[in-house]
Amino acid sequence: MTAATAPALRERLTDHLRVPLHRSGYALVANAAVTSGLGLAYWALAARHYPAAAVGASAALLAALQVVANVAQLGFRNSLIRFVPSAGSRAPALVRTAYTAAGAAAALGAVVFVAVHGRWFPELTLLDQAAGAALFVAAAVVWMVFILQDSVLVAVRRATWVPVENVAYGGLKLVLLVAVVGVLPGWGIFVSWVAPLVLLVVPVSLALFGRFLPELGRRPPAEELTTADLVRFSGGDYTGTLLWHTTIDALPLVVLAVAGAADGAYYALSWTIAYALYLIPSGVGSALVAEAAHEPEHVELHTRRALRQSLLLAVPAALVVAAAAPLLLTVLGAEYRNEATTLLRLLALSAIPHVITSTHVNLCRARRRVRSLVAVYAAFAVLVLGGGSLLTASMGAVGAGYAWLGTQTVIASLLLATSLRFLWIGRVPTPLVRALGAGPATARHLLWAVRTRAVVPSLHAELQRRHLLGADARFTMLQVSADEAVLRLADPDGPPLVVKLCRSDRARLGRHQEHANLRALAASDALGAWRATVPRPVGDGELGPLHYFVETAFDAGPVPAEEAVEAGLRAIRPLHEASAHLAVVEGELAEQLVGRPLDVLASALPHLAPVVPVLRDRLDAALAGRIVLVASVHGDLHPGNVLAGDGVGLVDWVAARSPGLPEVDALGLLVTARADRDQREVGDVLADLVFGPEDTEAADVLGDLPSAEINGDLGQATIALLTWLDHVAANLDASTSYATNTTWVARNVEVVTARLDDPRPVAPRTRRTWRWPWAVAPAVLGLLTWWLGFATIDPRSLGDLGPVGHLPAWAYLGLAILGLGFAWSVTRPRLSEGVVAGHVVALTTALYGVPVAVYGTLRYSWAWKHLGVIEFIDRTGTIDPDIATASVYHNWPGFFAAGDTLAGLTGADPVTIARWAPLAFGIASALAVAFLLSALTDDRRIVWVGTWVAVLANWVGQEYFSPQATAFVLYLVAVGLALRLRQRWSGRTGLLAAVLLVGLTAAIASSHQLTPLVLTLALGGLAVVRRRQLGALALAAATLTVGWALWVADQFVGTEIVDELRALGQPVDNAGNSLVDPDRMSEGQALVTTGGRLAVLLVLGLAAVGVLRWWRRARPRDLAALWLLLAPFSLLGLSGYGGEVLLRVVLFASPLLGFFAAWALLGAGRLRVLCLAAATAALLAGFLLAHFGKDGHYVFSPDEVAAAEFVYSNAPDGSLLIEGSRNYPKQFANYERFRYVPLEREPAATQRRIVRHPVRELADWMSDDRDEAAYLLITRSMKEELDALGVGPPRFLDQIEQALLGSDRFRVAFRNDDAVVFVLEDRR
Amino acid sequence: VTVRNAVVGLTALTGLVVLAGVGGPLRALAGLSFFLVAPGLGWARRLPLRSPAEVAAATVAVSLALDILVSEILLYLGVLGTEAAFLALAAVALAGALPRPRVAA
């Protein structure tokens, strides 16, 4: 592609997508694809998480729901698309009526199903309960509205909302499907299917009734629509649709019955694949119906566009499916590949003619021709089912493929030859059309000529009787048309005459008019000698049913083609000059030039009535009130009417009139000559002049006219349009045969009407509103791709690098799309915060939500441990600050107390709450970061890029269900409030903010140990650099922090204070203790560690550059931002925090690292998109390694959870629990009742001793009389963790497990694939 | 939908499902929404914040803080339970949603 063609291509693509029909079409096709994909993912996930019985029953219930909805939609799905656009102010009422009627029908259908389900479907036990039955009925109504609102969105030109809405619905369904599995193992599928509907119906309805429909209502209704019309259309469409679905659904049964179960399977699965292709014209067709209703005058243009778009998508897709059929079927098994390849190919190819039939059906909807629609569907039912049963009997399932392909091809061919002829007839070369039409025309003319010759003797006698010719006159047939014959009479005794023999009233009226015109010309003295150029009327009369007109003839013949234009113009010029005068285009003149021809057009071709106002508007705009030079005109000047001999003669004055525009005569002559020369239709040539560039030959002709000086500025296009209208109206008026000749109409009339005012997206407002769904498309698409990629991994075998080592390459494409989408959207000239925030939420969901959905169990042992504290509070109603295990949580219990409240309020399993907590905390943290950064700058790009980078830089994994995650969110908002207090808020607002800030601080101080320290440091620093009044809040924070530690948590602090004091003032040691030694680790874990460190170094580097730029560009009035960046680093000098302080520094610094990195990245000028994308890629690489790299052992399988549940449920109080390591679902219930000995924490010498004599050593440990019982638990994750981190002797736990399994002193109390629990056989 | 209506509606719905002992997804949805939004919405809305994202962040954070403080107080008082926590949080939420006192001219 050259540099020049790329922009041209882009421009063409942009133009293409600016057409509403194309946009809607693509959106609906995309919707079909995405919905199918999400549906597959949904059922795959359902099968994975739910028992087969639950899946089967739920699928049946949902099928019932859909059957009820399909029956109850009453044809409104299409009638809303068809009638809402033209309903104007009545649109909201129409939609409400549809919702009410279909909703009531759905409710009724659902009630009936509930009443009868017990007889046929007793498995659907949900419907046996009143609440379940009510839910089903309510779901049917909401589902109905959900379906219909898609139609309304299409109707109001918001089809782009449809895929977005359905992706959101599909996503919510997936999330709920997994989320409610613990709560509703039986009917979670049904609930997850139904619940999101409400979330989507409400906002879409608000948008529709609050904005889109009222916008539409500003227009008056564009067509009449009575209740009877609506019922007729809906009923017809409903019947047609039922026929179509019957055809589709019955054929598999036919194949099954005729050819057997195997063939039935081949057909059913092949059809499932091919049917996806059928959905393409269906989606585009819906857009066609809506657009045609919006612009009925352009229905044919829209039809062409819809057909082109459908073919563009369906033909390549069908060919690919046909070519790749064996490959696609291989997925289903070798048997399908061998037996069904031909069948799938036939079905795929049938999708190509289906584009034609589907387009016709939707055109019928657009034109309200429901009978034709029903006829087509009935033909399908008869041919497909009849042909299918016959062919299947002899050929097997492949016969059904031939039935589809044959039926589609036959019906499409018939439609193309008849009602869809207008689509192609205009493009066929004129000589071919004339050749095809020559046979019938010649035959008709021959018959008429024979009849004419039969009356010649009578005619001769009649003219002799009137003394108009002598006895020896000879007749020559000059011309025969449908309505008349023209004969030349050569009379040796007199001048030659022409006789026009009319056989229709229309022709007779025309010739009467001609004679009147000729008499007027003859009577005009001003024309002088020129009058010899025109025939002179001689007489007329009746001859049986015929009427004859006689006029003088010229002793001349047709002028040579190449001279016709010049000769004709020269001949007509005197008439124009002699009769020229100025006039204003109004009243009768306007009526003559525009009004009457348009009336003729509308009356002769009613289907073009909608285009008449467009033509009128266009011509009125060019002519109304304008002064023009008018004259007497010929009205039908073409080379055939210009005769040359001794002089020049002009004949056929039927259309002559005064006044008229001389330009129409001149251009008419030119284009008819050109049409003859080029073998084209006159309408086609004129269309070029109307819509094409200025034609130099036409300009020369028009410029030479005597009226050019006055009429010149009408413009060539307007004159060409007037000439076309004149030509078309004259022909339609002259003979009914033109109106019934669809070929002539298509090639001469519709060739212009179809191109009038190509509808383009009009109002800028509309353009703006459709953009945002596309702007968030990268976020949705990226997230979905990532999700689907992530769903391919097996959480039980993640290995050394976690999911990173197992994800398919295309999964990363999802993150790339997401990253590029963000980089693009945040650098647009006009920033859309909703779109940018949407990308941030999508990123957070990708990083924290998708793993939750895929892993299926609660990740990370500490999250389980936190559940244990909540369980303690829930069980005992209190806390125990002196408790032996995990006493720190009982001394800072805020998070756990709130957790207990949350579990109570939601009634949900706390494990489920904890599972989804990372997503909630991830999103809340991102919003809180944006809240903080918004207080530092007014530049919203800095805010959102800073938030984006902060999310990516925060790989430390503190978003799990923990006090730290909660406290971090509170910290960010507290600092954000403090920053706002300085400049923006004062008085009562300032007081409220201060009170809230103290509340946040109190919640933090009572929930976490480290965060209050950071907050106190931050507020103290801000008091110094910004405002001394903040000192009071800093003091309050310090007081709360210290007060809690000394008065509430005093006993805990008393035991820990010595260690903490040792760490005080030792930043290097504290940092060093946070760094693990990669040499001990496995290769993968060393890479994980390195990835995290490199990510930190990268963001530090970016932030350093950003600080410089911030300092130079922003010229900050204070150092608040800098202080908030540095404050967390001071933690290094205060505490080691159990070897984790460095990670917490990264956590607390990440928002400001993001802030300054944003300054660096957005300062890269034109390269900022590139820089942002590159930084995203690098930080993501670090994040994925560092955050997910340990998931090989952080993620627990259901088997491991089951083993832990066995221990904590069965071990008696006072038991000893020996753990291979602390990495398992630990301490989540009854945790205070046991004594814990993790083997990983034993000194190396002890570990070696255990490996040497595992049975003896562990038997001794587990025989301690102080313990009520003793258990040893070893799980897969424990082994993987110790091996990966290099803890203990090689294969430490494996060796123990093997030894104990082989010993008769130990008994296996519980065992599954991933865990084993040992007890002593004979405990003394 | 005004803030006051939202808070009152959410509180009423949650009260209905909690006090009537209704279970299932409706309770989960209502309880979670109440916990994350209701206590803080009225208070956060009184701050002159500039964007919906800012309001959302402040609402969630203030709600969490109030959830923590209320639950903790009830815990130390020995009366922590679902109904008690709900009633206390509802009081805090509705207090936040009360109309602002008019300033005398």
Question: What do these coordinates show?
Answer:
The complex is a heterodimer of chains A (1324) and B (105). Chain A is an alpha+beta fold. Chain A has 52 helices and 16 strands. In chain A, the strands form 4 sheets. In chain A, strands 1-2-3-5-4 form a 5-stranded antiparallel beta sheet, with helices on both faces. A 5-stranded mixed beta sheet of chain A has the order 13-12-14-16-15, sandwiched between helices. In chain A, strands 6-9-10 form a 3-stranded antiparallel beta sheet, with helices on one face. In chain A, strand 15 and strand 16 form a beta hairpin. In chain A, helix 2 packs antiparallel against helix 10. Chain A is elongated, with a radius of gyration of 43 Å. About 1% of the residues of chain A have low confidence. Chain B is mostly helical. In chain B, helix 1 runs antiparallel to helix 2, helix 2 crosses helix 3 and helix 2 packs parallel to helix 4. The model of chain B has no long low-confidence stretch (mean pLDDT 89). At the A-B interface, helix 34, helix 35, helix 37 and helix 38 of A face helix 1, helix 2, helix 3 and helix 4 of B.
Highlighted features:
heterodimer; A: 1324 residues; alpha+beta; 5-stranded antiparallel β-sheet; 5-stranded mixed β-sheet; 69% helix
Outline type of chain B? globular
What is the CA–CA distance across the termini of chain B?
29 Å
Largest interface: A-B, 54 and 47 residues
Question: What is the radius of gyration of chain B?
Answer: 14 Å
**What share of residues are in beta strands of chain A?**
5-15%
Instruction: Note the run of SSEs of chain B as H and E.
Output: HHHH
The largest β sheet of chain B comes out as: none
Low-pLDDT segments of chain B: none
In DSSP terms (H or I, runs of 4 or more residues), the helix count of chain A works out at 52
Give the tally of β-strands of chain B: 0
